[in-house]
Every structure is written in C-alpha cells, then in structure tokens.
Fold these 3 entries.
Entry 1:
Amino acid sequence: MAGAFLRRPSPAYKTAARRALRVTIAATAGFYVLLYGFDSAVGATYALFGAIAMAGLSHLPGSGRQRAVLLAGVVPVCWVLITLGTYLSVRTWSAVLGMLVVGFALAFMAVGGPRFAGGATGLQLMYILPSFPPYDPASLGERLAGATLGLVLLTIAEMTLLPEPAALPYRERVARAAESAARCADRLRSAPYTLPEATLGIAQALSTGLRSSQVPEAERPAGAGLRSRALAHAGLATRTLLGRLTVLPPPGSGAVTPWDGGTGSGTAGGAERDAAARGMDQDDGDATEEHASREGRAGAAEVAQAGGGPDPLRAVADAARETAARLRGSSPDGRAHARLRQVRRSLTAADDGSPAVLRRNAALLEVADAALAMSTAADIAVRGRAADVSPSGPFWYARMRAPQLWWRRLSGHVGGRSVFFQNAVRISLALAAARLIAGIDTLPHGFWVLLATLTLTRTTVRETRATERRALTGTLVGALVAAALLAVAGTDIEVYAVALPPLMLLTFTLGPVKGVGWAQALFTVVVSLVFAQLAPATWQLAEFRLLDVLTGSAIGAVFGLLAWPRGAHDELRRSVAELLRTAAEIVVATTAQITAGGRRVPLATAPGHRSLQHALVMAESAYAQYQSEPAGPTPPSAAQDWQAALIAGHHTLWGADRLLVPPEPLVVPPLGRQAAESVILTGDRVAASMLLTSARTDPTGDTAQAPAPHHSSMLSTALAADPPGAPRVYYATVSWLAALSTDLARLDGDGDGDGDSGSGANPSAATGSDSAAST
C-alpha cells in the first residue's frame, strides 16, 4: 500500500498538473481581484472563464512561450467575439443566427492547422459567454476588461510557471534528415554500393521523425502560408530522397531492395533509432565523410559511367548538405543546387547503354529529382517569396501572398466531402439549436447548455453517445456533491472562496487524465462554487446544472445522429475511392503521351490533374480525422493500409510530373512498337487495378461484387524481357508503374507492413494535409 502512494506520477499527470497550476492561478487571481477588490462581478466572471476557456477547455499546442505568443494574438479576437455576443444577444433570433455563423467560422478554423484547431473551443466559449441575457451593452467595458485581465494573467503564467521546453523544430528535423541523405549518398558512391545496417537504421529513424504523427502539434508545418507549405514540402521530399537512396540498385544490377520508407521496421535496432531521433548520428557522419573521401574516388568513375555523366550521387550529397546548412540559418551560394540541376539534365539526355545501366540511370534520376525538390522547397521555406524559384509545377505557391494561399485552402474545403466542413456544420447547427432552446425556454444558466453541447459532441454518434453517458454520470455525482456543499455552507462565501483554488487545481489535473466523467463531476462542483460567490445560491443551482448538461448533451446527440453520424469512416473510403479513380486517369493519360512522343505537355494541363490534387486533400484530411477517432466495435481490417493509397496518389502526381515535364522544352520521338505496347499494357493494368481497388473501397458501391485485383502478375509482361533498343524513358516509366503496383498491393494487404511503401512519397507535395493541391 505504501508503495502505491510513493509511486511516481506518470508523465500525463505531470503535464496535466503543470497546466492545471497555470490555469488555476490565472483564473482565481483575476476572479478574486475583480470580485473582492473592485466589486465587479461581471469582470470577475469574464476573467475566470477567459482563462478557463483558453487553457482549461482548449488545447493550445507547444511550449509555454509558444502558447503565450498564441494567447497574445487571441486577445483582439476575444474582444471582437465578446462585442458581437453582447450586441446580438438582445433578441433570440439574432443570437441564434450569430451562433450559427460564428460557430461555423470558429470550427472551420481547423483547416489552418493544429494551432487554429486547438484554440477553437476556447474562442467558441468566449462568444457563448456574452450571448445570454441580461442584455446589458453598458457592461461591455467590464466584460472586455475582465477577459483581458484573465488572458494577460494566463499569458504570464504560461511563460513563467513551470514552462515546458520547446520541442525539436521541424526545420532542424529536416536538416538532420538531409544530412543523413548526404551520408547515404556518399556511402553509395563506392563499393559495395549498399548501406550498412547502422546507416540504414538511422535513415529510417530520421525519415520516421518527419511524419506528421511523430511531430509535436506546435511544430507541424500544417499552415496555409508560404513558408509552412514549403517546409512541409521539403520534409516530404527529404523522406522521398531517403527512400530512393535506400533502394538504389548497384551499378550493373536492376534489382531493388524494398524498404518501408520510414516506418521504423528496418533492420537496425531500437537503440540505433533512438540515437538517431536524438540527433546523435554525427560520429557516423564524420566517419562516413572520411570513408567517402578515401574510397569514393576509386568508385566514382564506375558510378559516373553508369549514371551517364558526372557523379550524380556526389551532386546529391553536396545539395543535401547545402540544404541542411540553409535550414540552419547559413547562406550557401547555391552552387551545389546548380550542379545538381546540370547532373539531372545529363541524366535526362542519357539514352545509351545496356538495360542495366538504363535502369540505374532511371533510379538515379528519381534520386536527383527528390534532392532538387528538397533543395528548392527548403530555399522557399527560408527565403519566402524572395527565393529564386519558378512559380510553376510543384512550386506553384512560390510567389503567392498569404491571402491567396488562405483562400485556396478555405475554398478547397467548402463542400460536403470535407471533414473540416462536416465538423463545422455539425457543431454550428448544434450550438444554434441549443441557443434557440435556451432562449425560448429561458433556462436558468442557459450558458451551461451550450457549454455541454460544445464540449460533449463528437465526430461519430457512437462516440458522442459513449461520451455523454459518462458525462451525465459524472455530472449527476458532481451535482449531488455540490448540492450537499451548498446546503451545508449556505451563504458562507468564505468557504467557497477558500475551496475554489484547490478544487480547480484538482479538476484540471484529474479531468484530462481520468476522462470526461471525472472532468464533468469536478467541473460541476467548480462552477457551483463560482456562482455561489457571484450571487446567493441554494442547492437548486446543482439541479440547474444537471438539467442544462442533460439538455445540451441531448442536442449534441441529435445532431451527431443527423449530421454524418459515422464520422470519417465512410468519408475516408469514399475519398480514397475517388482518389484512385482519378489517379487511374492520370496513369492512362501519361502512358499515352509517353508512347506517342512529340512535344511534352506540362502535367498541370493534363486532364484530371487538378482533380487528383483536390482528391488528395480530401483523402488526407479524412485520414487524419479517422486516425483521431476510436475504433468501433468492428474495427476495419488491419490489412487495409490507407496510407498506401495516399502515397499512391502522391506518387502518381510526382512520377507523371517527372516523366512529362523536362527541364527545358523538348520534342521526343515516339517509343518503338514493342516498347510502346509494353508501356501501354502495363499502364492499363495499373489503371485497371486502381479502378478495381476503388470499386472495392467505395461505400456507395457494391463492394462485394467487385473482383479483387491481382497485383502479383500485373507487370509480368512488361518485366519479362527488355524490348530491344528501348530508350531511357521506357525504363523510367516502367519503374514508376512498378512502384504504383507496390503501393496498390500494400493497400489491399498484399504488402509487408504499414506505412510508406518503398516507392516513396511525393516530393512535389506542398503539405502533408494540402498535398501541393489546388486548394
């Protein structure tokens, strides 16, 4: 028994306790100063709930300093919301209409990334608080002053009271991964032309560290702005570069060794991955550079000959080191980037050699493309619109201003197929209905009705029902405790004043860890103690609290049932099906243009290109929400790797762009008959496989009748023998189609693990949630 009491608290309790201490001190300090020092009950209320809204009920990501910066920017927004709520509450119809519009706008903010999504609940509360009677515009000054004091105290507390250290910035993560790519390229320049297990494990760990699920929310480059898009683009290109390097065939061989692309299932041990995640791979880098300088010269001639010109891997390594230096604040001259462009041009023009040489040439071209995308995106991330980048193709956003980029992001998610739009509609309709019922029935403390609707409504009706069951149980227990306390203490305000701080500290420590039942029970007692100090209260205050929570949860359940009740489950299947259908069109159009020859048409003008970009945005946002929802009673089959479908979409765009957009205007001859037939047949089979997988995925179709695609035999015709005299573009196209087939096999459970396929992700994608898309 003694050991249980002496047991050290878990990290979750420590984190919750630190946040609870900050919100308790800020909220109670503002509340007591204004209530007992200035006799302003209105100001005290807004000071208390301002701090609770933005720290207790919201989840602002980041360290203490990062949250303080966010809070400083939130203050003017809170002024606007409090002013709107004050003036619109004069009539029920205006209050309901305002709740509908403002509720949608604040919920839709989630498209801007975790920082916007984290503060949405608190901002909703700042608008809800003044939207109830008494209608008193004369008290607007007190309301604004109270809210400002609470937020200022909270900002100071975030900066000074047990602040968490900042996480490793995403820019540094990309820089470390770029350095690892440089070391891999150096290793591959000399015999035995393979990566040691230690180097491979470090590359896998650093690639995994760039995945959004592995990056703290405050560091994710998920915003709509130029630098955020470019930084996410650089991270995705770096992951692709690492993946390409680890499967690069040695000179004279066409074999490709599969790699999981950063899922952490490689051959290196866990200790090596942990060391890489902490950035403790510098010794390996020094040894690698010494090894490359000693042995690289001996193998450079052979590799350069296989690559058809200057040593491509040396150019890739130099460009990767230049990228890392730029991301860390240096100002390199860009010569490595320029040399890499020249090497890429020579690889594109090299059409002579044996089939093995041409296959390696195609693989080296993919490596060079990924390195160029990484270098260019990093330059934009650092220099913004001053970067010397052509605003076309994958870098369409390079010259756009912030309003344009935000408009593309917002307009792209306006529609019933966007989960951000669905969530915003669901919560805004529920809040408007709650405000209407509270206004018509004149419920006492109607504010609690909307608070319950806001905090208990979930994205699926099953989760909403389970949450509300626990919440109502907790509220009932809390109401009984509060009623007993109010009956015993009566009008003895000193009891409530003394009990409030420790109880609030306990509430915001246990609530986030123990769950919604504990949170509602303790919060019911907290609000009872608060309102008992504002005005004389009896045990019936706890009864009103229970009634309001019951009403609000019922409203949330109704709208959860009516508006997209299954959350992202069906939407993910539908969006993946649409993604694969559109990708199939791109595959057919690309292979047809390659076999026909002639002047190349930029991919951006190809049929279906914009649709595929938009389909990627919808699928990725649905996948992100799907991951945040708990598994249902019948969880989906583990064999379906949804991320493989996203990577197949990325890879379709990236490969088609590489094949169709040369570095300079170019007219190419058509392929020979045998090579053309092989490319067309293989492309048609890949497209057919995409369509079959799409039909089996789409929840609106008859998935039981859709035949299962056979990925294993799909490329047998194209890979059985090399057509005589086939040019470089043939081998590049077949390599692209083979990688797409691998992605599809992984989606259908024929692959060998979750995560990224060996084909790599799209280095031309602008963000993990925005996908270089038109949105």
Entry 2:
Amino acid sequence: MRASAGRLVAAGIAILLGTAFVAASLMAGAVMERTTYDAVTSQYADADLVLSGDAITPEQVDQVRHTDQVAAADPMTRVGGQLEAGARTEYASLGATASDERLNSATLTDGELPTQTGQIAVAEGAAQRLGLSIGDEFTLVQEQWQSTDDGGTVTSEDRPVTVVGLIASPDTYLFAPIGALVTADDLAEILAYSAPEQEGASSEVLVALEPGADVHAAAAELSDLAGSGARVETVEEIAEHQTADLTGSDRTMLALLLAFAAVALIVAALVIANTFQVLVAQRTRTLALLRCVGADRRQIHTSVLAEAAILGAVSSLAGVGVGVGLMAVGLRVLAGSDAQIPLSTDLVITPAAVIVPVLTGLVVTIAAALLPARLATRVAPLAALRPADAPPTSRASKVRVVIAAVAVVGGGALLALGLSLAGSGGDSDLLIVALGVGMLGGLLSLFGLLLGCVLIVPALIRLVGRLLQRNVPARVAVANAVRNPRRSAATASALVIGVTLVTMMSTGALAAGNALSSELDSRFPVDLEVSTATTLGDEQVQAVTTTDGVQDTALLASTATTGDLPDLGEVSQDVAAVATGDLNQVVRSSDATAGLAEDTIVVGHQLAEGYQLDTGDEIALTGRSEEEVTLTVAVTSLDGTTSLVTPDVLTRLDPEAQTTILWARVAEEGEYDTVTAVQSSLTDASQTLDGADTPMVSGAAVERAGYQQVVNTILAVVIGLLAVSVVIALIGVANTLSLSVLERRRESAMLRALGLTRGQLRGMLAIEGLMIAGAGALIGIVAGLVFGWAGSAIVLTQMAEVPMVVPWRDLALVAGVSLAAGLLASALPARSAARTPPAAALAVD
C-alpha cells in the first residue's frame, strides 16, 4: 500500500464522498428527530407529569390539584378566536395563563401576563401584523356553530380585550401554537360559548409537583385517581412516543437521502473495483514472485482484501469527519440566516451516524475488491519469469453478452407492460402495480446496459475514432481506450449511473410539467382571473396590466341573477359580460367563448353538469332590473361558476353592473415570476384603497406556477444529491487515466522517442478522457430520456397525455459537465506523462 499510495487516492476519495453522504444523511435525520422532540416538550413547558385522557372534567382537575405532592395542575386547553383590530383580522389559538410558572409554555417578552378579565397577551408577530402594542384595545370574536334543520348557522359574539403583554411568536407549527393568552376564567367562558358540548373537558392536564416529591409515587396516585381511561406519563415518556409517531415523514426523507447515498456508494464501488483490478494487473510479477517464495492462494487473497479493508476503514473515517464538518457548516449557515425554518441548529452526532458509515464504507470497499482478489489468486508463479508486458486485452464473454441482451429486452418489455397497465384505466391499486412493473423494468434495463457497456463503450469510441483518423494522437488515444474494454466500460459505467438518474429526473419533470400544463389549459381557458366581490379599482386594474409578462387583458362586469330550471327549480347564477378588451385575445382557446350571441348564454361544462344543462336548453334569468331574459344555453370549456352573456343582455339584467373580473393572458416565459408579481402588485394596490378587498387570483397560470415551484424545488434538491455520484464517477475517469499512464509509461516514452511532442501526448490523453466520459454520458442520456418519460407516463397517463419531450438545456449542461470533467481529469495524468523523460521511462524494467 505504501508503494501504491498515489494510485489508491482516487478510490479513497470515492469512498470518502459516499460515506460522508451517509453520515450527513443520518445526522440530518437526527436533527429532524431532535427538532420534533423539542417541539413536543416545549408545549408541556417544565411540567413534571402529564395526565392524558379522552375527556378530563374540571372536577377531576380539581381533584388532581388537591392530591398530595401536587403543587399545581392546569388543563391544556386551546380554542380558536378571531382578533379584530380595525380593518385587520387574524385567527389565533387561545390559551390560558398558567397557575404555576413551570406550566407556562409561552415566553413573555414585554409587559405582563393576563391576571384580570378582559386582559390578553398577544404573540409578537400577530401584534405587529395587527398594529397592536401594550395598552391597545381590540375585539376578540368568538364563534359558535348552531345546528338547524337545513344544515346549520354560525353566530358570533364580540369580547373587548386590552393588550397587557407580548409573548414570543412560535418558531414551529408542528402543533397548534399559542397566538394569545387570556385568564383561565375568560378561557372557560369562551369555551362555554364556542364549544358548549365539551362542558369544559380537556384531553391533557399538566401537573407540577412539590419540590422533592417522588415522581413515580405521584404518578401512581394520579393513575388511581384518573381511572383506567387515562394515563399518567412524564414529559420525557410522552415526548418519546409522540416523536416516534410524528417522525414518520422525516424518516421517509431520511430513507430518500440514504437511497441517494446508496447510489453514490454503488458508483464508488465501481471506481474501487476498477482501481484494484488495475493494481492487480500491474502487480502480476510481484504476486508471481510471492507465489515463488512460498505464498499460497489464500495469503494472496487475504493480502488484497486486507489492503481494501485498510483503505475502506481510513477513507470511511475521513468521510465521517467530512460529513460532520458539512453538517456543522450547514447548521451554522441555517442559524445565521433569516429563513424561518423550524429546525434545531444543534449538531447531533449519534453513534449510528459514526458506526453505520464506517461499516458501510468498509463493506462496500471489501465487496468491490472481491473480484480483483480472486483474479490475484489466479496468477501463476511462472508469470514472474515472463517479460513485463501490458496486461492482455480482456473481452466480454458470451454469457455476459447474452445476459445483458436479455436484461435490456426484458426490462423494455416490462416498461411497455407498465405503460399498458397504466393506460388501461382502473383504480389506484392497478396504478401501483403498473408503477411497480415499470420500476422493475427500468432497473432491469439499467442492469443490462451496465453489463453491456463492455460492448457499447468500445463501439462508440471506435465510431468517433473514425472521424479522427488523420490525427495521429487521436488514433493512438482510440487504440488505448479500446485496448482493455472492461476497464473502459467499468469507468464509463460509473458515469452512466449518475447521468442516467440526472437525465431521468429532468426529463420526467419536463414531461410531467407539459402534461399538467396541457390539462390545466383545457380546464382553465384563462391564464389569470382577478375577481372581487365589490368593484375592481383603477389602481388594481393598473397593477395587473402594467406587470411584465401580462400580454392581453379584458375587464368584465358581472351581476347576480336567478333562473328557473325544470328539475332544480329556482337557482342563482352569476353572469358577466366584457366591458373593455377582446375575449378572443385573452382566452387560450376560442372554444371557451364559442356560441356567445345576443340570445345565448355561455355556461362552463362543470356548472352545466351541476345544473343538468345541455347545449340548446333554454333558461330564463331575472336580475336587479327584474326583467326576465330568456336565453339559449351553449356549453363550452369555460371554467368557474360565472357564465358569459353579451354586454346588451347584461345591461338588461342589471344596468348598474360593476366591473368585478379581469381576465389576463400571460407570456409562457417567466410565468411563475409574472404570477408572483401580479399577486404582490395587487396586495400593494389594495392597501392604498381604503376598505378595498384584495382580489382573488386564479386560473391556469396560478396552478402552473404552484406546480412549477414544487417541481423545480424537488428537481434542484434531487439533482444536487445525485451530483455527488456524478463527481465520484468523474473521479473514476481521472483514476483510470492516471493508472493507464502508469501502466503505459514505457509505451509513452517510446512514442516520445519516435517524435511525439509533449503537447501531442497531452492531447492523446485528453482525447482518451473525452471519449470515455462522452461514451458514458451518451449512454446515460439516452437511458435517462426513456426512463424519465416512461415514469411520468405511467404516473400521469390517467390524468393527461404525456408527450415525449427532450430537456435540451439540461442535456447540454450534463454533456458539457461530463466532457469538461473528462478533459480536466486528463490534466494531471497528462502532465505526469509529459514530464517523464523518454530515457528514464525506457530504463524502467
């Protein structure tokens, strides 16, 4: 190992990156779990015990308070209320001031806690949004649901309150956070009005014990008092099982992170296996001499595996250190940022975060060295007497070729079967089966491609080599690249995995986005609809029309009408007509407004289905003018609950109809930014209008913007995680070229002696690196395109037709990075080869 330390560096870096990924993932999971645990314990303050039950009555709470060793006990009750300060309102969760400081989970930041009726302490964030400070008075609105024969009604009651204190705003929303505190008596009155059926019962009671009390004895006494329907636990006990229940989604995320780490380790294993195969080949004479002096096959096998174990252990330990460092830096950046992310910023290093990565790295490294160790045992003692030639060319066996072909064809058939099952319709169970069949087909196809790389990679390199026949260094580079197909294929295979996954995610996201956009265009013929219940002000209209990306707009006036239907009787119907603008320039499809005339009304398909209307039916509408207007129904793809009529018909129904709707068409480029800008501009414009409501923004562009934000975020995270495997694969390219330079040292010296310049030697290695990286990238891109489209088609085929789209920008970026990295990977090996004098290289035996 001392003699080959330089050759093992790349393999060590590969396993270091993989284990660092595993360590960081496990620590991220530990941070999520600690965050959840802290959120659970924070709501219980410093209580000694928690009494839990289905309905703990006020009488039982009084009994708990009078129990020996109990200093205080408060029901953990929350009720919703609306805070109204002038024209501003906010919904908040109300709690009561604790009877003991140890049971108070809220942190007082200014003023005092409520002690008298009519006093309230408000969270700082809510107070800022409502414009409140200590001493201000505002209204607390209580609501009550009352059941009636026709469904039910909501009644409300106003309660004047005065701000006496400010409490810290919650930093996590895992549980219903306290937005305001009132006295226990006030909270009881609010509960009696808002939820009279509960009769003041609660599900949890916080208990503070006397100093020096026996916690276990007090818990046993309270258990006897509460009966079999309740349980008594310490805060630590209840936090542990609640954390276990609540971290399911976090563990799902951890599983995903570990899945990406597994990909990185698989790629690292390919690099390690390739490295040890080259080392074994270069040590043929050394291994043969060991056999001559008495070493048996088991000793040779053990020596190679011991070398791999040492490399794996050292690299894994270093990887854990790198993972800890990366996690510490990430948490430090998170702590210093303004992002309101409810995560614990304390580094949590669990035993698993150290032991698991080290064991994983050790096992992966030893497993990758098993085949090279087996090859080492086949070296015969007589090999020590043979000339030190380059390792013989290794070709693919017929069995390997057959297995690869069967895997690719069988995987393709399974993919096609998955598409067929998904497209046949049916319930969600069939879709899950189709997705499982498709995933199995994809994995099988990728396995076949990796096995077949030993044939595909040399073929691609030879194909490119035909274009470079006139260039002598290029011809030599092609010959060198295909001299050992297995080694070149193993190097390219590592890159194939990373590029395939990156391309698959990009293609899948683009295909899904296009399919969803097509479906949204059919459901929402209008990109943006800005609507309000009153009247759109000039400032609001100007805010939309002047936003970059808004191409065409149309203002619509609307009114409420009633009509008689044969089957449903009298129904309400909102109708609108264009006031300014051209509808045909705004809607995505003219079919949405087809049939609009003086004697017709255009009704959306969803509304028509609900009202049991078909094209050609007649409906008589009566508006504020009390004139009855009979119109013929034209059902179109229009969305929403508002139907279209002509301006003249609207005037007959309501001469004073107000402009309440604005339709806009948005440019496809930068649609998300346009939607965000429109919403922001409308909010600003509405605040300048006294008493004006902020209009509601809907339409296809809003839906697409939401999907785009989610998809782009997920895609960025996934590609960022997969980038680790691509980096490891590119390290493998550099490793292969470095070992190849060492292996062909005498050959390079001979070429130099025959007239090859240093620049031509560097160019020869650069071309070799470009060819290996390019072949891996090309195979990965093609496979990723197929897998990405097939996956999206299986998932979304029942919702919309999924087109086969090519993310040219992403593919160009992936190919560019791969080729640039292949070129960069050749720099150091080429520098080493060019600096070696021909005489010194030829003198080596």
Entry 3:
Amino acid sequence: MPTTYAPRPHNAASANIISGTNPTREPTRRIYVSTTATGVPGIDFLAIERVINGDLPLPHLNETEQELATRLMTRAELGADEIAKRLRVEPRTVTRWRAAWKKDEDSN
C-alpha cells in the first residue's frame, strides 16, 4: 500500500492516509521499541517498531532485525502466523527461531 500525502488532513480518514496506517485494522496496544540505543550496527529500531505495530507500509528487515522483532512480538503474545505475515517469512521460520531460543535458554 503506497503512502500518499495530502496538504493537510480534512478528516480522520485523511489522517490515516498521511500516516500510512491501515484504517481497517482494529486498534491494538502499541509496542514501543527503545530507540535510544541507535549505535547498534545493522539494526534499525524504528523499522522494527513499525513492523511490530503493523504500521504500513511495512519496511523490510534484515535477519538480525527479524529475529529481534520476533522476540518482541512473541513477548507481546502474537502468534507465529501473524509474526510471519508482518516479517514476510514462513511461519515455520518463526517456529524454528523460537525453538532455538528455547534450546539456548535450557542449556544455560
């Protein structure tokens, strides 16, 4: 969904177009990612936050960002199918990441 810009919002629907949000999506609790650690190479925290909250258009994330986003969405109790949809990966990939984390936690 391309974002279009209007000179100024005339009503609530125009505001949705300007911000790039989906007006048909049910309002949900927003999840904020700490963006104070901006010096982490290869991680765009703002892009991760947009993906987690489903703000359109969804940016593409690299694998490190995808795994971090998956952890945060898992903590927020999103299902593997929804996480996979937002990250543009297969649900099996999300399940595999979760299994690897559990294995790491169990070994520690």
